[in-house]
Amino acid sequence: MNTASLFPMFLKLEGRKCLVLGAGSVGEQKIRSLLDCGAHLRVVAPFASALVREWADRGALTWVRREFEFADLDGVFLVVAATSDVDLNHAIYRECHAREILCNVVDDPPHCDFYYPAVVRRGQLQIAISTAGLSPALAQRIRKQLEGEFPAAYASWLEELGSRREAMFRAGGDSEVRRKLMHGIATREAFMEFIRRNQSEAGKEVS
Of 164, 167, 166, 174, which Cα lies nearest the Cα of 194? Predict the structure, then answer.
């Protein structure tokens, strides 16, 4: 196991060419997450789950119904290997490494350039938890804890914060004053005030 620290970042995959090899239940989960990010997705597998076939029929992805060929890696930015053949997965990883293509062999941490984190999503707010593949179960437990701490209202609150931040930049002024103001409106207390305000407005609409 590589002991080097991981570099945490969020990748923009919209429009990028991504490849998933394998389209069973395991591959399906990875495919869904890449589609959610707007990736230009190609799936190579002789068979596919019903949901993957549905996505292909809708044009959400391209399904190539055959076994993997190394030429499938041409021009690809990111690869997920989710076949049932361990030797093939390792060969795919080695070829990706030689071509400097990011590769994730599902459930095989030593053969991963990146890991799928457990994620809490609240609109544009994303909190990702990684254990570097050591304990996905722990990552999932922490995710459930954080879901309780960050309710769904964080999504709309973040939109409001973004709008207020944009307005501050348009107004100009001293950057240090602006920074303090932005930190001041991003507190737990400010969130609770946002909740109270929304509940009050909702009550007025009902009455």
Answer: 164
Q: Which long-range contacts (CB under 8 A, 24 or more apart) does 44-50 make?
A: 44/19, 44/20, 44/68, 44/69, 44/72, 45/20, 45/21, 45/83, 47/23, 48/23, 48/24, 49/23, 49/24, 49/25
Q: If we measure between CA atoms, which residue out of 129, 121, 45 comes closest to residue 80?
A: 45
Query: 110-134: per-residue pLDDT in tens?
Result: 999 999 889 999 999 999 999 988 8
What the block records as the tokens of 57 is 């029929």
100 within 8 A of 78, measured Cβ to Cβ = no
What residue type is assigned to position 54 of the chain? E
Task: Return the CA Rg of the chain.
Answer: 22
What tens digit of pLDDT does each residue of 157-187 get?
999 999 999 999 999 889 999 999 999 999 9
Distance CA 111, CA 93 (A): 6
Model-level pTM?
0.79
| DSSP at 131 | -
CA distance 200 to 120: 27
